[in-house]
Design goal:
Length: 397
């Protein structure tokens, strides 16, 4: 196999914090989530793939290095996506491919059908095929060690896309949305809708979280739970099923059918004659499962339901009153950011990051760029989804 000889300096690129339009650093309030508020910290640091240190602090400067416009010529980027089953990854993959091609790169885009072995071999083939940078959205953050070791041996920089790659020092950068904040947006919505500080209650609530193999899932759940915890402890919110730890409410592979069958069991066992006030779902694919279960099995008052992603089916459900809110994460913003970081890495210029303390993968703290999630509901979807060109009106009919 052709050994890459990308100059060490590419991986040792100087990092700088930049606050770009539409993207901010982590503003994660709770201490017990393991996250840190870095909103006002500007950090300049030098790192390489083996570094465990996020560097020194240098408040005040902003750097938005622009890569050489021809940086893509003759370079190849491997883009590994988890699955075509969920709408968002199709959009992410398509946006990445479009933007990379527009910047002159060759692109090897692969989807792994939620099969970890398949993702491993796809990445190994990308490396064997001579890609210069790898962009990976993992199915399971901890299962790609062999491929990451191979990337490191070949000196190929790796960007973790949306989901952190765990337990490896071969991860150069991470680009995502502020995952903890997604959860706080959901939790705060519930708190405000029920007016938890003033209303007498009690209100009944259930939780449905994401895939335990996805590092993001815990951040979403903790973000929401941390807002609601005090009301659960005081008895104003009652989890009638008693299932309130992440492990109990998780949904393997974020699958709609698994979320649906768990919800059907809960409805059958606990809500035959009792109203559900809230079903806090971490994302749209799981919310859809809960909405299906409610349509099939439940006759009580329709609950508040949260989501994330503004998938088409869920946006239609918001318009129809079957889902209360979602959290919009513009995949175009994330793709643009990753393409920019790819160019910065390859041209050896400063790589934009805005968080160097939150995302420890068990081995290193990975310099990260966090984009900003946006609250969405039936009142603002036109502005954020249609006026911005994300969807056409016809797609939502
Ligand atoms: C993403 C979410 C998505 C979920 C399921 C997470 O890693 O951040 O946007 O809903 O995976 O695909």
């Amino acid at each position: 196999m052709k050994m890459k000889r990308l100059a060490k300096t590419l991986l040792g690129a100087t990092l700088a914090v930049s606050m770009l339009a539409g993207c901010t650093s982590g503003t994660t309030p709770a201490a017990d989530s393991g996250t840190t508020d870095t909103a006002t910290t500007t950090t300049t640091t030098t790192t390489d793939t083996g570094s465990t240190d996020t560097g020194s602090t240098d408040t005040g400067s902003t750097d938005t290095s622009t890569p050489d416009p021809n940086v893509g010529e003759g370079k190849k980027v491997g883009v590994s996506m988890p699955t075509k089953d969920l709408q968002r990854w199709n959009q992410d993959g398509a946006n990445m491919e479009k933007e990379l091609k527009a910047a002159g790169y060759d692109v090897d885009l692969q989807y792994a059908a939620n099969d970890v072995q398949q993702q491993l071999s796809q990445i190994e083939n990308m490396i064997a095929g001579g890609c210069d940078v790898l962009v990976i959205a993992a199915i399971e953050g901890s299962s790609l060690g062999e491929a990451l070791d191979m990337a490191k041996e070949n000196e190929i920089p790796v960007i973790a896309y949306d989901r952190l790659l765990m337990n490896s020092d071969a991860v150069s950068y991470y680009a995502t949305f502020d995952n903890y904040k997604v959860g706080t947006v959901q939790g705060t919505y519930v708190k405000e809708q029920l007016d938890l500080d003033n209303a007498a209650g009690p209100f009944n609530i259930e939780f449905t979280a994401g895939d335990p193999g996805d590092n993001n899932a815990g951040y979403f759940f903790n973000g929401a739970y941390d807002v609601l915890k005090e009301y659960i402890e005081s008895g104003k919110l009652v989890v009638v099923s008693g299932q309130k730890t992440f492990e109990e409410v998780a949904t393997p592979t974020w699958a709609t059918d698994k979320a649906q069958s768990r919800a059907e069991n809960i409805i059958g066992s606990f809500y035959a004659n009792t109203d559900i006030d809230v079903w806090l779902c971490s994302n749209d694919s799981t919310a859809l499962g809960v909405e299906n279960a409610l349509a099939n099995n439940y006759t009580g008052k329709y609950p508040i339901i949260t989501g994330q992603d503004c998938d088409i089916e869920n946006t239609k459900n918001m318009i129809a009153g079957k889902q209360s809110m979602s959290v919009f994460k513009d995949t175009r913003t994330l793709a643009s950011q990753v393409v920019k970081m790819t160019g910065q890495i390859l041209s050896g210029t400063t790589v934009d990051v805005n968080d160097t303390s939150t995302y420890n993968n068990g081995v290193i703290t990975v310099p990260s760029f966090l984009c900003e999630p946006v609250f969405a509901d039936a009142n603002n979807y036109k502005e954020i989804l249609i006026d911005s060109g994300y969807y056409t009106e016809d797609q939502l009919k």
